[in-house]
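During the no-cost extension, the postdoctoral fellow (Dr. R.K.) reprocessed legacy sequence entries with the updated structure-token encoder. One reprocessed record is reproduced below for audit purposes.
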Amino acid sequence: MHALTLLRQLQVPLLALVLLVACAAKLLRLIRADWAGSAPDIGHLIPRRLRLPVAIAQCTTEGVLAAGLALTARFDGGATDAFRAAAALFFLICTSALLEVRKHRPDLGCGCFGTLSAGRVHLRTIVRAGALTGAALATIGAPVFRLPRHRSMDLLDAGLLACEIVLLAVLSPEVGEILARLGYSEPCEISLVPPEHALASLHRSRVWRKHTALIAEAAPEDMWRELCWWYVVYRARDAPAGSGGAVAFAVQVKRRRPAIRAAVVEPAAGHGLQEAVLGASGPSPAAPVSLASSTDI
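Re-encoded structure tokens follow.
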């Protein structure tokens, strides 16, 4: 009986941890403005204009439930059981939604843990959601969790918790995705880094601040990508339109700390701009170019 009571008590921190991780994964997706995702998931069943509000609501719900379970774990009362019942209802809704998606739209992912859940809904995913529902139901009315006084109880706590974590890992397809990402580095030539990200990185860089006085307009005249670099061209200040005077930047296709390079092209040499920016072996005699040293942000 003691082991069963202890098992019920341990569900509370475990459920709080699962909800917190799910909330953090979705929050990271929101911060990166990737909530719609490149891979289809349950969110694609919702009209496009409602996807962001629904994603925010789901993330907030998971965060509130995680905080409520954690804060009420050491107390008795109606509020404690209310959070546990709400968590059970939340997981029950998730289980029902996954069953429907697997039956009617097997091509969609669940999106349970942000971009880590981009794959199709597995049977393991449904079993995991059902197990979490049962775990939440088991916590309702469970005794208050007390720190054990004997070392044998410490080992029992740790053993039961470890077994549950291993079981959840086995039921989680996301674990394989995490291991694959840790062991795989995507080549920059095929990396999907949008131009907006390159512009944001450029505008935060020291290279931009160093050359901003030479730039005539806020919007670039041209922007293109070649393999691992985004190239951004701005009209130079005091250079007549069409004269070719420009300030060009090369931004590495990389999400974090991309290298930034800059080139200042004289007004009479605009026709040699692309060769200069692309790093040709040397500028033509008619295209004198001043190249700044490369740097990281």
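DSSP finds nine helices and six strands in the chain. The radius of gyration is 27 Å. The remaining legacy entries will be reprocessed before the final report is submitted.
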